[in-house]
Amino acid sequence: MSWQSFPKVELHLHLEGGAPAPFIAGLAAEKHIDIAGIFDERGGYVYRDFYHFLKVYEAACTVLTGPEEFYRLTLAVLEESAKHGVVYSECFLSPDFCGGRDVAAWRDYLAAIKAAADQAERRMGITLRGIVTCIRHFGPDKARETALCAAETMGDFLTGFGMAGAELVGKPGDFAWSFDMAREAGLRLTCHAGEWGGPEMVADTLRDLRPERIGHGVNAIRDLALVDRLAEQGTVLEVCPGSNVFLGAATRTWKGHPIERLRERGVKVTVSTDDPPFFGITMTSDYENLERTFGWDEEVFASVNKVALDAAFCDGATKERIAKRLEATR
To answer: What residues does CATH 3.20.20.140 cover in the chain?
Structure first.
């Protein structure tokens, strides 16, 4: 069967990281901003390593200068997701890139993103929810400002809070205040850990920040006691296998990726693409590689999507509606 048309739930997608390179290049041309150095001769993104990737990512964001650009970006990203069968998506949104963490400015950006999401749902049938993320390498003080943006704007659309960025900068506990604020406001919590850090980073994140989901988490495989703890506690991992293989996080090969070993040991795993145009991947290509490498079939993918939907940061009515769409092709 074609995995492209198979209905999918994606929980780990950075909005700016989903920006198609031609979209960013077009905006740069409109605004006469020279960021040609972030593209290769074929028009795709180019960078040397993960830390250079973060610089290229931030350079791409310099052309996203106002709510209108984020409206257009959201439509472009959701159009690409819908093209690959995604019926429900959760995107990481960064007030750092949307008004510099000013709450009033952030409200305008968020309104534009939500308006685009509403239009995409009407036109493309894809449902979006937002998760505000602080940027770890920007430091704890800026994370507090980001948490305030999230707490002030939570609602039916903005439902979660998390942390992304350079995982090896600082300690999880440095950001506990921000996570406590978000939790007290009623936001649901996720946090990147175990992509570049080892199993101890996953354990420290669970202890100090108490998220219900972990972004990536794949290096937990190096400590089977921790893996068993994840399984027992029902912690959901937002695994991004294509991203991991491309960047060399945990593995450089699909065969060496731990997603199947984690799943076999009882951990709740899901599949997402992280920053797909930066890595030359899609949800379709990840599904194809999982089938080719581990023999995943329709039953396995349906089970993984059910795990994702159960863990989604949305209300019960939305889950019921999406569940019917997941069942429609079975």
So the answer is: 8-19+66-327
Closest CA to 3 of 278, 221, 287: 287
Q: H/E element holding 161?
A: strand 158-164
Q: What six digits make up the tokens of 110?
A: 């968020």
Could you say which of 10, 195, 299, 327 is catalytic?
195
For the stretch 204-229, pLDDT in tens is 999 999 999 999 999 999 999 999 99
Q: Residue 195 catalytic? A: yes
Query: Are the beta carbons of 210 and 187 closer than 8 angstroms?
Result: no
What are the Cα distances from residue 316, in Å, to 120, 312, 313? 21, 10, 10
Letter string b/e over residues 24-49, b meaning 16 or more CB atoms within 10 A of that residue's CB: bbebbeeeeeebeebbeeeebbbbee
pLDDT on residue 150: 98
Dihedral angle computed from the Cα positions of residues 14, 218, 50 and 48, in that order, rounded to the nearest 10 degrees: -120
Q: Give the residue from 22, 18, 158 showing the smallest Cα distance to 83.
A: 18
pLDDT band at 330 (very low <50, low <70, confident <90, very high): low
pLDDT digits (tens, 9 = 90+) for 295-310: 999 999 999 999 999 9
Task: Give 3-state DSSP helix, strand, coil % of the chain, rounded to 5.
Answer: 55, 15, 30
Candidates 3.20.20.140, 3.30.70.120, 3.30.420.40, 3.40.430.10; correct CATH number of 8-19+66-327?
3.20.20.140
